[in-house]
Amino acid sequence: MNKATIWQQFQRLIEMGVDEAAGFTESELQRFLLMPKKDGGLLIVSERLLNLQMQCVLLGIKNEMDTEYNIENHQNIVPVPDTLLYWRYDVEDGAAMLKVSTLEAMERFKTEGRLPCTTAEVLAIYRENPAVIADPKKGHFIDAAGSRVKNDEYMPGLGMVNGTGREQTVSLMVNHQLENGFNRWGAASCQAE
């Protein structure tokens, strides 16, 4: 999925202000940048480095998760590396799982040796390719099936909502319909290491 080089991705983080928001200089943040194990990796900003709310702010994403299902109730249900920055490989942005329920997608991922993407990983997909969501003709919404809010009942997702007038806003929201597949929603996944 990702064709950007290591340094292009890292530079995008600097342009967004990730270093400053996390309290680092560019060179300090660069010390946490591990070299990827293979080509085509997607650089992830972990929640340990920068919480999801701040990542949304830096990406210009509106947080639509209300107080009952908020980011503070967020948890990952798949293992993530215990580092500030990490890599995911063979990332699929959810297009392959359009119209497939999250529960069915999770079963397919397990069979294929893949992991469902977490919220931070979905934000990285958007960071590297905003058109995956924002393109009105080819875009789709992405379920973060590797994360849950409020006791595993609900899952975060990234999609478009109507703003004022004709504008559309990219928003982080809650999806509680794990058993239903929708035309514009698909669960993203990555290769399990």
Largest sheet report: 5 strands, mixed
**Secondary structure category:** alpha+beta
Distance between the termini: 17 Å
Overall, the morphology is: globular
**Helix percentage range:** 25-40%
Question: How many alpha or pi helices?
Answer: 7
Cα Rg: 16 Å
Strand composition percent: 15-25%
Whole-number total of structural domains:
1
Q: Round the mean pLDDT to the nearest integer and report it.
A: 86
- What is the strand tally? 11
Strand arrangement in the largest pleated sheet: 2-9-8-6-10
Order of H and E elements: HHHEHEEEHEHHEEEEEE
Low-confidence stretches: none
Keywords:
alpha+beta; 27% helix; two-stranded antiparallel ribbon; five-stranded mixed β-sheet; single chain; 7 helices
Description:
The protein is α+β, with helices and mostly antiparallel strands. It has one domain (6-191). It is 27% helix and 23% strand. The protein contains seven helices and eleven strands. It has helices at residues 6-16, 18-21, 26-30, 52-59, 102-112, 119-128, 131-134; strands at residues 42-45, 62-63, 74-76, 85-88, 114-116, 141-143, 147-149, 155-162, 168-175, 185-187, 189-191. A five-stranded mixed beta sheet has the order 2-9-8-6-10. The chain has a two-stranded antiparallel sheet with strand order 1-4. A two-stranded antiparallel sheet has the order 3-7. A hairpin with a 5-residue loop joins strand 8 and strand 9 (168-175). Helix 4 (52-59) packs parallel to helix 6. The longest helix has 11 residues, at 6-16. It is globular, with a radius of gyration of 16 Å. The two termini are 17 Å apart. The mean pLDDT is 86.
